[in-house]
Design brief:
The chain is α/β, with parallel strands linked by helices and 323 residues long. Helices cover 37% and strands 22% of the residues. It folds into two domains: 2-110 and 273-291, Rossmann fold; 113-268 and 299-320, Dihydrodipicolinate Reductase, domain 2. Strand 5, helix 4 (89-102) and strand 6 form a beta-alpha-beta unit.
């Protein structure tokens, strides 16, 4: 299979390495032609028109996603795109409708769905092993903040970071959110506040069946990269992310992880590979899209509701956010 890859930033280069072992012919493209040539030479790929392929992977900046996805739909080329499909719900809906009209396979990248722990938790919840789910808790902590220049165009912590939590919450529980009340604080560098963003976050989410969900986030989790989910039901409590590399020091016995997760690429390396493999299988017609634009839209609506709640300091119902 010929696969085109658009964008060779941090995540794009990561996908390029994965695709170099899966595609029969990998065509890489970036606005920086020298970078594209360098990556191609390193991986045994080639530069050229990424649309001259059987499937395309989009890892370019968020602002380009919608136009590239619409191009894929016009050409009916199976396409994988890193989250989000677009910066706004209106643009995301446009992509979803274009994909549905054209019958084009569009896979939005939410790699946590392909992590073994989250997948096991989903099976347990939907299979009834936890009994009736009463509460859930999610944590995402980055070990260090991104560059200052990234924040003004990131969409804010709820769209940029917690959108993964919102997607995995829906996927694991099979439930939709009804309301969210979100808070934020600035405890670090001034550039977050200057961009209207926060570096520390918290939220209380009420799901459609009354399940209560709490969420916490930080751009300054200096102990390491921390992603966890806890699910408590009437029969059992499950946790994802409490392995030996979780960046936690146990107060009970003073034990610290020998090698905490340093970043999201390392923590989810296997999940990223599984995700690309699933996309290629779908592009070959062997399975349906594992994460559609409608899934991306649902996660983005929750992110927008959380951001609105933080800014207006009030609970926000999901029905207030455009579909």
């Amino acid at each position: 299979m010929r696969v085109g890859l658009v964008g060779l930033g941090r995540i794009g280069r990561f996908h390029a390495e994965t695709l170099s072992g899966l595609a029969d012919d990998l065509i890489v493209d970036d606005v920086d032609g020298d970078l594209a040539a360098e990556v191609a030479a390193k991986l045994g790929a080639r530069t050229g028109d990424p649309w001259d392929a059987d499937a395309v992977v989009i890892a370019s900046p968020t602002s380009t996603h919608a136009d590239l996805l619409l191009r894929a739909c016009e050409r009916r080329i199976p396409v994988f795109c890193e989250k989000p499909a677009a910066p706004t719900t209106a643009e995301t809906l446009r992509v979803a409708e274009a994909a549905e009209r054209s019958g084009t396979l569009v896979h939005i990248g939410f790699q946590r769905r392909f992590d073994a722990g989250f997948a096991a938790a989903r099976r347990a919840v939907l299979g009834g092993e936890l009994g009736v789910l009463h509460r859930a808790h999610l944590i995402t902590g980055d070990p260090a903040p991104p560059p200052a220049g990234y924040i003004p165009t990131s969409g804010g912590i709820f769209r940029d970071c917690h959108i993964h939590d919102f997607d995995i919450l829906r996927w694991v529980t099979g439930l939709e959110a009804e309301t969210v009340y979100a808070l934020g604080a600035n405890r670090g560098a001034a550039f977050f506040a200057e961009a209207g963003d926060v570096d520390t976050s918290a939220a209380l989410i009420t799901m459609a069946d009354g399940t209560l969900v709490t969420l916490q986030g930080s751009r300054y989790n200096g102990a390491g990269y921390d992603v966890r989910m806890e699910l408590a039901g009437t029969l059992a409590t499950w946790a994802v992310g409490l392995g030996e590399r979780a960046p936690l020091r146990r107060a009970d016995d003073g034990v610290s992880p020998a090698s905490p997760w340093p970043d999201f690429q390392t923590r989810f390396a296997a999940a990223y590979t599984a995700e690309i493999e699933a996309f290629l299988a779908a592009a070959r017609g062997e399975r349906e899209s594992p994460c559609t634009p409608r899934d991306g839209l649902a996660a983005l609506r929750l992110a927008e509701a959380a951001d609105l709640s933080r800014r207006e300091q009030r609970p926000v119902a999901l029905r207030e956010i455009a579909r």
